[in-house]
Write the structure tokens for this entry.
Amino acid sequence: MGTHHTATPNLNEKFEFTGSLRKVLFGMMGAGLLGLVLVFFLYPENHHGRFWSNVLTNVYYFTGISLFGLFAVAAAQLAYGGWNTLVKRILISLGSFAMIGGFLLLIILVTGLLGWHNLYEHVEHIMHDHDNEKYTNKHIFFNTKFWVLRLVVYALLWAALSYTFDKFFGEKDQTDVKVYKQSKLLAAAFIVVFAVTESFVSWDMVMSLDPHWYSTLFGWYNFASYGCAAWAMTILLVIYLKSKGYLEVVNENHIHDLGKFLFGFSIFWTYLWFSQFMLQWYGNIPEDTNFWVKRFNTGYFKFTIFLALIINFLFPLLFLIKRGAKRNFKMIGFGAALLIVGHYIDFFNYTFFEPVVCEAPKADEHHGGEHHSANSANTVLYAEAHTDAKGHEGAATDAPAHAAPAAHGEEAHGGGHAPHGELIHCATIGIGEILVFVGFLGLFLYMFFTRLSKRNLIIEKDPYLGENIRLNVTWS
């Protein structure tokens, strides 16, 4: 194995954001708006839970991809890594969605607290249960002002650091020793901010959908999923730019490096998936197993859980492990596109189950014709108030014992509600979900290409540039 020199190519190329590409992206965003309209009007049950679940899933997913792009730059900068020099502008441009992602998450939270949707109304239930010592810490953490303030801080930090990365690495001479030291400080600051906010936002926006369930691995789990999707997105964008005649200096060796990161993070994601599931199954604690029992007893979600596992683990293991697959643009491009879809499905399993209920349990006629409204707080988390055999009304409880069996191996009925009926989930990945995903992808790419077009594709004043241009590995 060795390297050899090649003629120095043109490094002043600049991406042209053409009108035809803009039209395509606007068309994608238009399709997304149509998808939002469909899921809003076709599924009005339960405070339009399906509409808001779509918004949450896509905003959360693409914000994570955006943040990870900046993380990849910061991590390499701290580790004196030069492997990403030729794709650094792409990684920094991925971070453009972080300019708005935090504010969109803030809107989702505030509208929920105002009662526009029911994604977080169970947290409000806990907040009012002051007699339950079990949730004392959660009373503090989910205090409305503190909760909103955290999201404001995340949004401001992400937007500021995204803008700073673009300006710093795009305008300053990285070969200057003083500037290079400053880049280390900037990278270190971002790593700290990313590590804290990425974990906290996963608890604030996703884990809190089921405030009884918790996982100490959840922040890491989200990080791994972000990483897989971000590396996959980077690979697809590099391939697209090369197909348009850009990035002449990028060859199969650089794509191979990106493919190795994609494969490595896929295995890392699988390790965390297994660790989270296996430890909770083995621990057999109702607050843990409740999350899995509910989903495994809902056929569609049991299917999508294993579908995500097959796409995100078995496919990389059997396909991306091959050296040739990581160096073939068509093969690695197909794999990257599939993994982006696979990790969307994974987030779908977390965000759609709790609020998206089409039908509440039907009341027993002998209980005075009591009606359980689908627009109430009745989801799989809580058994809504119902009357007992003597006709006395019972209080709505938040006890996991109502929500699901105490352990694996026991039978569950519709999330463990009272025996007089079962909840029916209308959560599926239908045409509405596909259109909304396409729309947010269009918005993400529009912001990406807008930032990318403002500066040269290659950061010329980078100390590792020459080394990367000469990278040409020969296998014997």
Summary: The first strand starts at residue 357 and ends at 359. The chain has 17 helices and two strands. The beta strands are 357-359, 424-425. Confidence is low (pLDDT under 50) at residues 1-6, 360-421.
